[in-house]
Design brief:
heterodimer, A: 492 residues, mainly alpha, Ammonium transporter fold, 3 strands, 2% strand, B: 112 residues, alpha+beta, Alpha-Beta Plaits, 4-stranded antiparallel β-sheet, two-stranded antiparallel sheet, 2 helices, 37% strand
Amino acid sequence: MGNGLRASKRGWSESHAPAAAVTGLLLALAFVSPAGVWAQTASSAAPAPSPAPAVTAPTATEPTAAAPAAAAPAAAPAPTAPTVVKFADINSGDTAWMLTSSALVLMMTIPGLALFYGGMVRKKNVLATLMQSFAITCLVTILWWLVGYSLAFTPGSTAYLGSFGHALFNGVVYLHDASKLSVSHLGTTIPETVYAMFQLTFAIITPALICGSFAERMKFSAMLWFMGIWLLAVYCPIAHWVWEPSGWLAVKGVLDFAGGTVVHINAGIAGLASALMLGKRQGLGRESMAPHNLTLTVIGASLLWVGWFGFNAGSAVAADGRAGMAFAATQIATAAAALAWMFTEWATKGKPSVLGIASGAVAGLVAITPASGFVGPSSAVIIGVAAGVICYLSSTSVKRALGYDDSLDAFGVHCIGGIIGALLTGALVSKDISGVDSTVLTQLWGVGATLIYGFIMSMLILKLVDMTIGLRVTADEERQGLDITQHGESIE
Amino acid sequence: MKLITAIIKPFKLDDVRAALTALGVSGMSVTEIKGFGRQRGHTELYRGAEYTVDFVPKSRLEVAVRANLLEQAIEAIVTAARTGKVGDGKIFISDIERVIRIRTGETDDSAL
């Protein structure tokens, strides 16, 4: 998000890239990563390092690549960290749209995603599945206020993680008497409170998406621990890498308009890790695991679709032309993907299923996410069709062939759709719209880094939780269902 | 007295009820059931995962009638429930030893 601003800065940012990678990798190592793996990645990731200049909060203010559509009209140097401005600097149109977008994106998780997933599980697990989305919403909100926002969206001392400067929303201010308030450097025309809440809703839906992979078998307590640690150790760093202008992937020029990489690849690969770690559901392939109520799923998918306009058009962080283009691209790509999935299924399996068209729509929404503010409508059609067909295959035949139990296809739809979107963003990016260029190669950095870091960290966190409190419910509890065994409730 | 147990297609239930009440049958019990006969089940496909549904939904109708009404009742059910396609159902007839109406204590034919 905030790419209007960041995109315009890409000109300066690219030159620092290799150096940035090395400095921070070492520091990141100390913070959260398994040493061996990162050392390897580092050597392959940054082939020609020169002594590293400090890349945090670069002072560069003049976009070398002139971007006419850039979001920063201010003549003064653009801020590189959250700053306090006068009330008059706030744009009421932008603020109104971003308040609306934040609420729309929250609606994607509760009730959108909750219903989408809730309808696909068996009846004995529906409450537990709804509960996962709801509880994650609450947990992430508190963690975001505590430290998450600060770690993700403030410049840190490395290119790998933000500072603790805005922990507990310290410095996120509204001063009535002085007629001043704080703004983020990623959205200078709206209050920082609004920007932080908008970003919060992304931080909520990302872990909630992972739930699709381990549905119907994870302990509720284990899920809370996993999600809490995952948010801080995986989501916040990756959001920082890609979206904070001093993050190393942002510096490399990786484009991710609204979260194809940060949200969808990230959630999807964590989903694969959890599907592998938890193992298959009992009776998979022998008993019916058919969705218990596809009505809920269709309502959920529809809420996701509507909410996604906040996600994508909101990622312009302004009520402007870029938001409008993102809106159009989102709608068109989604329709194309839904039809592509439907016709593929119709042609190969004989019937156009309701679950199929709803899944196709979600796949299209995922794939257009990284591209939405950077491509035109025709490219959106291409991205949509690719997502519809490929995600159909990855959630059906590929999944069956490989044998993991990604229950509700968080990996098959979100990770694969996210990768398609990220790479096609590089191929189809329109300089007229985005103001920047990118290549598939640049985009591969974002995809690769997220897949590697996300997978390894997710496995480690899951292992940790498994060794301490255990990840999975007992066989008896699984047979009885999570509703009654985890929450003491059930529906008839 | 005879007990008629008829397994029929659910959407034929109203027709059968109308045909039986026209004969003067004044009560019946209906249960939603699942089962299979020659119709067998069908398959459903969710994101490529195929599930065989072995048991198909049916309605089970239980009617107690006087012996002299039996043939007419059978005829009414068969006529009303038949579509001519596999899965129309079956009718089972059994004897009833006694019938008691709880409210009045009436027994047998007068309790029907």
